Amino acid sequence: MKPVVLNTGSRNETYKGLTVLHKPLIKICALPLDETIRAQYDWLIFTSKNAVTLFFEMYPYIKYKQVAAIGTKTEEALSNLNIKVDYVPSRFQQEYFLEDMDTRFQDKTICLPVSKKARPLMFETLKNIAIVDKIELYEPQPHLDNVMCVHQMIRSRNIDWILFLSPSSVHAYFQYFSLSEDIRVMAIGQVTSEALQKYNVPHVISEQETLYAMYETIKKLD
């Protein structure tokens, strides 16, 4: 039988050889406009697909010279808007972004559109070398109907794997429930892994930080 995989992230992809179920544990709630930001920047820096979508809906008038992105889905979201991406790090984490950036952001004006719950590392590092305006675009909140549905699916023991693609999705589930020991858990990357560790959840980490790579890892392990 095909392994049954529950994807709790916001996006879904099928994969040959797996039965993939999709229940996003997070819903995105837009925050009010920030009327204090500048009209023009040297750089826009995006760390998520959600930030891309909301930013250009909410702030279509802001001018910019160059764009940076973390992650293939973030880059794809920009490409779908016909926006050229000028800088992408070697791997999809803030740490690698900052490690690879060289001097390209030195003394520049930067707009950093993020989630209200975004990690502070990017902003705290960049503000030491540039003029950075952080815009909190949205707040991820638990999708409570789906959290309950996932819990019922797990109790029915019809799930082989559950995938977590963000720390927010980890907190959305484990602040209410725990997991049975016979369900295997995977984190998309180190940051999500750290969130699972806080709840003492045994898990593996995907070989690369994409949903497709998570499916590939399952095929290798099963």
Give a quick summary of the entry.
One of its GO terms (biological process) is protoporphyrinogen IX biosynthetic process. 32% of the residues lie in helices and 25% in strands.
Describe what this molecule looks like in 3D:
With 222 residues, the chain is an alpha/beta fold. It folds into two domains: 4-25 and 142-221, Rossmann fold; 35-140, Rossmann fold, CATH 3.40.50.10090. The chain has eight helices and ten strands. The protein has helices spanning 49-58, 72-80, 94-100, 121-126, 144-155, 167-174, 190-198, 211-221; strands at 4-7, 19-22, 26-30, 40-46, 63-69, 109-115, 131-142, 161-164, 184-187, 204-205. It has a five-stranded parallel beta sheet with strand order 2-1-8-9-10. A five-stranded mixed beta sheet has the order 3-7-6-4-5. Helix 4 (121-126) links the parallel strand 6 (109-115) and strand 7 (131-142). The radius of gyration is 18 Å and the shape is elongated. The chain starts with a strand and ends with a helix. Catalyzes cyclization of the linear tetrapyrrole, hydroxymethylbilane, to the macrocyclic uroporphyrinogen III. Pfam families: HEM4.
